[in-house]
């Protein structure tokens, strides 16, 4: 009986440590995620207002630092990697004007968040300002350009200490993704005496590029008390052989009483932690009946009081969601947990509520007595805001589609007007000039036509566009008297509209010039065009086997065609080379832009 009781006590302690570790881990994740969300909100205000919120930025940043001790400072780092603003200014004066590109421990991570637009969460490190902290960089984009980052120095010690209040029987250590210890709580001198009770959990930081933190929870004095009682029992057995039975009974009663008292005291603290949680927490069995816990947050969130919920099937699950509940329960029993599942349920007043659900096993080994701990968060306002954003994006997509359609139609009208004007012009040379003008307009309208006919409103597949452009120019100049062939190699590459239009105009001018000037004394000719990716750049090669073209003439000619080619090369910000030993070869390189001054994003 005594051995069985000791096993039950050990299992009770283990489960208590597991439950405490899980709740503490969730509270730590919530605290850190809340600070990340605060920084994200500050960033969103700048992006939504296209930077005009900078007038209030320092005031808001100062309030955040003043109200939340986890924020050591908040600073603005512009796109050149120089710290321009910091709150509070006092004590951080040395940071102003600091070029972080010269800091090896900051440069690569900061450039990475600029490139992939994800919040950067550094490891625990020492700062120029003095103390150690985490640095969180939130990238800011508006006007189609990366503007810089809102960067905060954070130390979560005060928030974590608040979570650990009343849990002095535990020693907690947290290590960052590089294995650096940055937080510990409670006495550690005797923690190594209970290795079988030690719990290790990951702390995940959503929407950041940080790796997982690791939290270690060690039991402390409460378990030492139980073990010291075992030592007292062995001393009694050795010293009092005649009263061995009485000693066993006394030891059993004393151990059971101590364990129950300690467990009751610990459970009271756990319940106090659950009751004070801002998230709804309740415990259910595999049939969905509320068995234990229904904290105040659950009452306020769903409307049912604790006495109305405990002992009943979860009241916020109507008939239409029972199949969904069974599916979620099967998943939790199979995988042991459910994380961040978004669900819709019903309040007592009949209104729907959107919730984020986390479920984990609580107690029990068999399917009949298995209980699950459910933690829910009200995300109704977040869901409504997300829906508003989706509707706004859809409206803008429809507007962009209509704009491209109208631009294409208006350009087609212009081409038609030129065609009518051309019919009344007897001068063949002037007719050719008007044809060339029509081709230039078509090279622009072709981009808008592809944008209208594709799902993307920002870029086109250049190969598809270029093939149509080549066929149109060939039909204009191919009289059947000369055999001019055009070969091309186009890799499937998307270009944004602000690069596709000048590149299309450039192709139009080069092919037109070849037909008009390169093969004057030849009955046969060949044109070759290639479009390839070279790392972050695009390589375009245009080549014909005509009579060639002097580079000096290209540099100094004032003709419309050559002037257009030079202007379009400058617009693409391209580097080029010309070879005219045998025929003509024009090679140029430019960087494909997804964001920036040459982008419409």
How many strands?
Answer: 22
The amount of beta strand, in percent, is 15-25%
Q: Any guess at the CATH architecture of the largest domain?
A: 2-Layer Sandwich
What class do helices, strands and sheet pairing give? alpha+beta
Give a short account of the largest sheet: 6 strands, antiparallel
In CATH's first tier, which class of the largest domain applies?
Answer: Alpha Beta
DSSP helix count?
Answer: 15
CATH homologous superfamily of the largest domain - what is it?
PAS domain
Work out the radius of gyration: 36 Å
Give the tags:
6-stranded antiparallel beta sheet, 601 residues, single chain, 15 helices, alpha+beta, Beta-Lactamase
Give a description of the structure:
This protein is 47% helix and 25% strand. By secondary structure, the chain is an alpha+beta fold. It has four domains: 10-213, Beta-Lactamase (2-Layer Sandwich); 277-378, Beta-Lactamase (2-Layer Sandwich); 379-456; 458-601, 2-Layer Sandwich (Heat Shock Protein 90), CATH 3.30.565. The strands form five sheets. Strands 1, 2, 3, 4, 5 and 6 form a six-stranded antiparallel beta sheet that branches. Strand 1 (71-78) and strand 2 (83-87) form a beta hairpin. The longest helix has 47 residues, at 2-48. It is elongated. The termini are far apart.
